[in-house]
Amino acid sequence: MASKHQAAILPQKGGPLSVGERTTPEPGPNEVLIQVKAVALNPVDYYQRDFGIPPVPVYPAVLGCDTSGIVAKLGSQVSGLALGSRVIALASSFFQHGSPDYGAFQQYVLAQADGVIPLPDNLSFEEGAVFPLAVMTALTAWTTVGVPLDTKYSPQDRQAVLIWGGASSVGSFAIQSAKSLGFTVYATASPKHHDYLKTLGAHAVFDYRAPDVVSQIVDAVKKDGVDLHIAHCVVNEALQPTLDVLKETKGNGVAKVAHSPILPPDHPTLDNTEITFNYPPMDPAKRDEHISQCFHGWLQGGLKSGSIVPSPGIQIEAGGLEGLNPALDKLRAGVSGIKIVVPI
């Protein structure tokens, strides 16, 4: 294996990315070196490129979180993976003090073994790349509001959730994961995505632009006779209508909302309702355990059984590392119900 490789490097705040050479790193004891075959793009990638948000602690930086590829080297303590095998990986410098060895946008990347699992033979590298950050964000929302990932409600428990923003990448996995936990799932999305979200496990989907969307959801919940006091706001501008629904459905109990976008200081509130920013545990040991639960537990098990599928649809952009800037520009301009993936 070569001692150098190509990477899309962010030289300073405000971008653009430029392709250059980096030294190929060696994996630590609990790390995997992956030859990258595809990366999926997330809004955080262009926020970091264009605005330095969330803060980029080290320049030059390598961005990116979502990858799939081939195991090139294994750390001494890694088990369950083989050299040359196909994998899905959360490869992000975010929890590694910004070290560019861990950013996905390069030909070889280091990843923590907790966030690396086998890529099933029936999925392409492009399909495999869509999972990592969206799965972790969707699952972290449940633990944020006190729902363990091994929860298994039965229909008799009549537990329901509301997912506002179901057609997004995170929203699609929020639906799949809520279904797997046993919830009756109510979601919002543009009408063109409604049928697709039902195939992922949504019980009912509502047009978030409808002027009476709140009363539509409340009426459906009451008609179905379920208990709705938990919600996940996946997108901006979702908190007020979500609270309007919960006000009518939560009864006398405490309602809980996981909020994935940054919570503005003056955000709306509701009596007897906890609104929490969706974020994994701050303690590194607890976070590693949580990442392992998300990947080695929920995702690997769901892929094996076939109950979890790549979502939403994929839009492949060509150009490899050189194609990342235009692909990020497309994502920033706005997409609906798709995930942009770039083969490397």
TrEMBL record:
Pfam families, sorted: ADH_N, ADH_zinc_N
GO molecular function, one term: oxidoreductase activity, acting on NAD(P)H
Top-level division of the source organism's lineage: Eukaryota
Keyword terms: Oxidoreductase
Domain Enoyl reductase (ER): 14-342
Region (Disordered): 1-28
Family to which this protein belongs: Belongs to the zinc-containing alcohol dehydrogenase family.
Protein name (record): Enoyl reductase (ER) domain-containing protein
Originating species: Capronia epimyces CBS 606.96
